[in-house]
């Protein structure tokens, strides 16, 4: 099977996820800037989650640009990733509406952790489907960012239960780690 349908489906689901997140934002009843202050946690949660969804979309695109074949395992691994990404609107809203309380922030971290693990599973399924000459295998190499991210999310979850803000700092740092598109893939594809 070709990868076109997988890309189109994934792009559609990710677009819906972003749409749902933005629809969760409620417009204040007043027209002053001061009326936005109580919404700050909701807006900050949205910005963080929008960044994460954008990072996953960007890296998903780069990863799929390296492959030629899609297997049944790839389809299921992709759905697994999309499942965890589809929970972003819920956990984003819960965390923001509750002003970054410990439990919603820890659950948000759990969803980040599961999405990161699902991405790694998809990456391995794509490498297996493409075979020994996999460009993706060559591109990701030791994949230190992919291995570091789950550890950061675990640390963030643990820190959240101690001090909610500390976990949030870890989540932001993990996002910053991935903000730059994966140059390893671009380098191998353009060589």
Automatic annotation (TrEMBL):
<feature type="transmembrane region" description="Helical">
    <location>
        <begin position="70"/>
        <end position="94"/>
    </location>
</feature>
<keyword id="KW-0631">Potassium channel</keyword>
<feature type="transmembrane region" description="Helical">
    <location>
        <begin position="150"/>
        <end position="180"/>
    </location>
</feature>
<protein>
    <submittedName>
        <fullName>TMEM175 family protein</fullName>
    </submittedName>
</protein>
<keyword id="KW-0406">Ion transport</keyword>
<keyword id="KW-1133">Transmembrane helix</keyword>
<dbReference type="Pfam" id="PF06736">
    <property type="entry name" value="TMEM175"/>
</dbReference>
<feature type="transmembrane region" description="Helical">
    <location>
        <begin position="35"/>
        <end position="58"/>
    </location>
</feature>
<feature type="transmembrane region" description="Helical">
    <location>
        <begin position="106"/>
        <end position="129"/>
    </location>
</feature>
<keyword id="KW-0813">Transport</keyword>
<keyword id="KW-0812">Transmembrane</keyword>
<feature type="transmembrane region" description="Helical">
    <location>
        <begin position="12"/>
        <end position="29"/>
    </location>
</feature>
<keyword id="KW-0633">Potassium transport</keyword>
<keyword id="KW-0630">Potassium</keyword>
<keyword id="KW-0472">Membrane</keyword>
<comment type="similarity">
    <text>Belongs to the TMEM175 family.</text>
</comment>
<keyword id="KW-0407">Ion channel</keyword>
<dbReference type="InterPro" id="IPR010617">
    <property type="entry name" value="TMEM175-like"/>
</dbReference>
